Structures
1.
Amino acid sequence: MPLTLKLISQHKIIVVEDCYSERCLLLTLLESMGFTAQGFSNAQEAIELLQREHVDMVITDWMMPKISGIELCKTIKSMPCSPYTILLTGNSQNAHLIEGIESGADDFIAKPFHSGVLKVRILAGLRIIAMQQKLESHNQALNNMLLKEQGYLNNLKHDLSLAAQLQRALLPKNSDLSQGWRVTTEFKPAQDLAGDLFQCFNIDKQHIGFYLLDVSGHGTAASMLSFTLAHHLSSSQQIWQSLDLAQITNKLNREFDDPEQCGRFATLLIGIADTNSGEVEIINAGHPSPIIVGPQGARFVDDNHLGSQLPIGINKQHSYHSQHFTLEKEEQLLLYSDGIYECRNSKFGSFGLAKLLKNISDARELPAEKLLHYLSYSTELWQEKQAQDDISLMLISTTTHLAHCDS
């Protein structure tokens, strides 16, 4: 694109030439072409100006006393925003020209020069200057955008951190329950926010309620949906007082909402335990079967995994039914998310339920906190310390088991 006269007049050019007549000739030619030009008889004066003011282009002679054109070019190129430099030389030998370019000159013109050649060389230089200025402007705009984006990401990271703290606050602490029963937990989210949530609480003096839900997907969307479901399952909801597990689960399934319409669902293991008799009622909505940990080893509540029903949110008309079993003396009930057994090792593949069950059996005599830590750490090593999914563990211990451990 040709440079307009207005743009030409905006650029400042200085001429450094110790010969008065040649300096005057150059200044006259530049002014006749519409350029704003200023002349200097020596390099030192030019350097002093360059240190004070912005200059777009320098046209300098090679042979000058004290500071030569070559030395001036080297000084100019050491400056932060160096101007475009054209070196005038009476020697057109290749070695001579190479030395001039290597010193920092952007172009050269051999003496004697034609005024037309001088003009096109200057215009070419100004086009390069214009492109550099445009690039700098674009870079500045990009930097501003990046700074703005970084500020946004910092705010988002802060918000996610607060949300993660809120999510962890909803999880049960290791604590005592009715009739001396106890709940112990371990939680390791794959990201800041998790799709897993679980809880265990007293319903009344005889019964405790518990659940572990896992919303499909990861990140913010999954965690927000898990927050919503957790609200419906809150211990403050009066529906728990009915002790009707099917009613609680069916109501949750009907109220499940997938606002993004992206096929989200939730697996759920929900139950009520009678702390006097040890009888436990559970509903398994697409979740892994809980594990009973006893003195003789570990076993699945549902050995054939046939008790699992549709996950929450698949079919709002589905009617859930429960199954019953009893926690015998010295037995514990372990609830867990699929993240602990579906994790993969790059060499050995999936961790698997069989390995999980064996690890539990091998470590069954450990205290509750140490058992859960052992299971979590084993999985962490298996997936080479690269978290692939949320890991949630909740161990419910009976009074008799606690008494046995204390002894």
Note: The CA atoms of residues 86 and 107 lie 5 Å apart.
2.
Amino acid sequence: MGLGSRLKSLIGEDLLDDIQHQLKEVATQGLDRHLKIAVTGLSRSGKTVFITSLVHHLLEANQSRSLPFFEVASDQRIISVKDLSSSSDSPFPLRQSVQALGQEPPLWPESTTGLSEVKLAIRYKPSGRLQRLINDSATLYLDIIDYPGEWLLDLPLLHLDFAQWCRKQQQLFSVEPRASLAANWSKAQSDIDWLAPADDDTLAILSSEYTKLLHLLRNQENALSMIQPGRCVLPGELASSTLLQLFPILNPPPDLSQITAGSMYQRLQQRYDDYREQIVKRFYREHFSRFDRQVVLVDCLKALNHGKPCFDDMKLALTEILQSFNYGSSGFLRRLFSPQIDKVLFASSKADHVTANQHHNLDKFLELIIQDAQREMRFEGIDTRCMALASIRSTESAEAVLDGQTISCLKGINKETGETMALFPGEVPVELPTGKDWNSSRFRFLDFAPCKLPQTDLKPTHHIRLDQALEYLTGDMF
């Protein structure tokens, strides 16, 4: 008599089956895993489109073959993907975004302005023999959290006091285009006695004008990235909070030891401290510390198009972000929040706006921008990667003959005019641009309207490297 038969005779067949079922459930739960990926990006970098396309392709991954470099999908081990986002307090507007991209003509979806999330359950077949012996399937619970890049730029405030922040802002507002755009606001500041008793009406007016100024700095014409405090332009649920009546003092008193309680200076200083504690620190303690991986989207082509001031501002913003991403044992983030992030993907969006032979240049160019800070992150054991991608492919490859030579081109619909056109978009530099580059109108990368994203029957041609991004972020979990 075998062991199974002897056990059944001793404890009963039904009880043994129940024990075996419970053991199998425990083993299965051991295979199930949970991963939280935070997605953010500098202004208008394509964050909403990235999340929409990523999730849409994942939901179809067991039926389509659109993710060839996403190993669990290409091996046909994904059984099914279920959207559990309805259980979230702030679900990402996935349905509306997919509908916008799937209509005729397709439209770019509306940008999100606060925190939202997608919750997925990915049922798959394990690859390891031992795992398959335990159970023939497992589940990865994947949370994708979307939050504005402007909120990310508040993170450096946590290690700056009010006086230090004002000095940094003073430097920013001393150069163009900030200096000209802020001339009237700066002049209004010069008339203020910061040692005088606080006048809340005056502070409210200056704060309102500063918020308008921040919106002007980040609009499509100026396209600056270093916007602080971030909640002033994207307040979320804090739209009417007095904590957002905050701005830097560009002409502080020479002797800060003269600052008294209840003065104009002290009132702003207190608001700054409250903003850091009640908004910035609270957000990162409640959310940031729970992220496992991070995606930061960057539109390098936009920065090149807008010239040196925009490019320098984007470089500064990325440097500040990366310095704040010091997750190592000596970093202030570790002391404040004990974050568990082990991978950060810096993604250069709009890879479809350059020819395929320029994708490598786009990778390297982003690496060049962040190389110093990235080196520090790697020293602390954080895995980082720069990758050019296109969440939605808006162009197709074409060829043209110029002076007897065949050159690679792009064909797409001009976002501004609605006309179909073919062009050579130009080359992405492999060195940081010099004065000669900026003065020569070298960079003129065109913006294209989106191509239609099908509801089903997705193909690899509908994106560029989205599957490689997924493999980097989640491949080790399957």
Note: Residues 27-147+292-478 form one domain.
3.
Amino acid sequence: MEAAGGDRSKRTWVVDVEKKLKEADKTAEVSRWEPHCIYRVPPCMTNIKSKAYQPQVVSLGPFHHGHRDLRHMEEHKHRALRQLLRRADRPLDDFVAVVDEVTEELEGAYMDLHSEGRSLGREQFLAMMIFDGCFLLELMRCTAADGKLVGEYANNDPIFSPHGILNMVPYIRRDMLMLENQLPLLLLQKLVEVESGKPPKNDFINRMVLKFLAQSSSPFPPGIGLGLHPLDVFRRSMLTGKCHQIWSPQDIEEDNAIIRSALKLYQAGIQFKPSKTLSLHDIQFRSGMLSMPTVSVDDSTEYMFLNVMAFERLHVGAGNDVTDYVFFMNSIIDSAKDVELLRSKGIIHNAIGSDQAVAKLFNTISRDVMLDPNSELDAVQRQVNGYLRKPWNIRRASLIHTYFRSPWAFLSLAAAILLLGMTVMQTIYTVLQFYRDDNSSPPPSAPSPI
């Protein structure tokens, strides 16, 4: 009886699989994954530094909503919503109605939203989106250059006052770069639409988010559509412009040799200089010169790179440009001496302390990272290796480092060359004088008769 029950159970799941097999549709599979753009970071990625993926001050979106350590920010979200409603002079129902129309779209942005059995109901999700979205809008506007909205809040406000902007906003800005802590920009677009009475341009939302996240970054390219979320906008700003074309394809090595460290490259004759832009695409090698964008390394750099790389790994079609850059930086940075060299050339701005800390940062975040063999950086790496395999380049570098490393070495070389030249000239003069004296001597006279 037990065996028969087991067979019946087996037949049941076999039938179920066969039924789903017949119902399988490639188009349906594509539409299933297409709307997702915000993901939970799997343990295989968080084992590097789990804290880098967890918000520390504020929860945005459903993945960390209600966490005990983040509940204190809910009061500030409510206050931000009331202030926005007062300024817009629009009833809350207008905002609710517009956001409710795109609730399914907003839910679809979060992958595995209902997987843990503690998902929010539709009304709870709708309220959370409105509170979080209005909080983000108020925060970005308060930190704008004109600072007009700051006066609408109390002088001792812990978040929206000048004191809060100086001391709390940097932590919130860092939390906005967490992949699990994202809000779809479609939400902000709808809220601004209700507030202003007309749909804003996509570039307006993109530029507002980017201005808040990175005041010193490259301008966001216009006309590419509304970003997915703040992290997506920030990533795109790092990759403005197109990759440089390789100037000498015949010099590209076909092997998979890893590029040497910066110090060894420098000793082999390769020079470094900052690129003209901050784009990670602006890396090129030409005539022994490797130009790279300047990167500022501070307390948020590790968090930013880890979350951007997680997004590139999990979001199909995002590309691997930032991951490739981190792999490239790890290849040329082995120790603090490499960081010191790059810092002296203006490529690295160190704001975290020792050069060893910067080296450790890149060596750590690049763990389990591979370079895309079809990327432009892989081509640059091969081009550098091809340059190093030419013997004359190595000999010339050795000559320069030996005799031109200091003024005294150069003077010694110049004195040696001058002495050698004078010796050669003296030898030539002596030989010529000998032949001249020999040719000018009179012929021997005939002997006199006896």
Note: The longest strand covers residues 271-274.
4.
Amino acid sequence: MIKIQVPDAAKRIIEQLNTNGFEAYVVGGCVRDSLLGRMPEDWDITTSAKPEQVKEIFKRTVDTGIQHGTVTVLIDHEGYEVTTYRIDGEYEDGRHPKSVEFTGSLLEDLKRRDFTINAMAYSDREGLVDAFGGEMDLERRTIRCVGNSLDRFTEDALRILRAIRFSAQLDFTLEEDTRAAISLMAPNMGKVSKERIQVELTKLLLSGHPERIKAVYDNGIAPYISPHFKEAGRRLKETEKIGNLPLKKHMRWSGFLRQEEPQDAVRILKELKLDNDTIHQTKTLVSFWKMEIPADKPAIRHVMSGLSQELFEDLLCFQKVFCPNPYQAQLTVVEQFSEEILRAGDCIRLKDMAVTGRELMDAGMKPGPEMGAVLNRLFQIVLNRPECNNREYLMKSAEHFLEEQA
């Protein structure tokens, strides 16, 4: 019999439910990942106990989704979602069931799930419950819907993207009926919120196979995400290189959108409700990655001064992945020089300059555009010649600039 190492806290929840006369199993992704030898992120539990019965058995619970039968049980400062076996009613909007009916049948509960590899349950007492061939599909490395594919995608259209996302995360292929249903049901994606779509696309891009974003276009899904997202597919190339980027959200989105104009990349990310930090970082990388940085310290300091240190390093990494070979030798020198600049403590931030706006005002300069222009000129001097970053030299230069303006 297959043995899964269930965490002690989850075991205790299952045993306590069993002691009170109820069935209970770990279910879904944790079973799938355990069978694949991967570390599960969450351990979800399914049970024949109704939510109010779960709350009677355990002292510390939170009503996280009680209308759908889910109660979170708190043990050792960890939360475990415990959900009653259920049958979903009709899905009128292609997103949510109109009603939820609790059932005493584990099989009925597993039947409503999306893919066979996510429709397995396990307990030490009963072993693996696999009514739909999930274990075999794991061995075949296949994503296949539970039952009728068209029904599963009609119930919740987001499953269309989830199928592609799982194929990217697990390096599995789409079973033929499932793939055909994806193409047929793609228009239903128009019913799904942009936030939910974005979460799936981000997980896909952060997977081991982000190049499978191409499947979103190949299967006709892109037009129902947004018109601008669809247009980006026309410029999509060398998608396999995206996987060479670090596992950072803004890096992977930038890799995907790098052929777009910066304003178009921003529009796509805003439509998908990405956070402002990711949008800003992606816009910066998309704007600058084609720019060759001269192997010259003053020029490098100028580029570094316009970016955070982390984003400058991201830019160099991005260029290593996507820029053509003739530039790569130069890029190695740029990286070496930038490290030397940091080690030397050269001033590359206005705030680190030896003269501040306050000191210029104390010397009699009025605040305003003129003072801003003087500060900027002083900063340019320091970027070109870091040895000039001393108060006496810069104050004299400021006086000279003011005389020029008089």
Note: The CA atoms of residues 284 and 307 lie 9 Å apart.
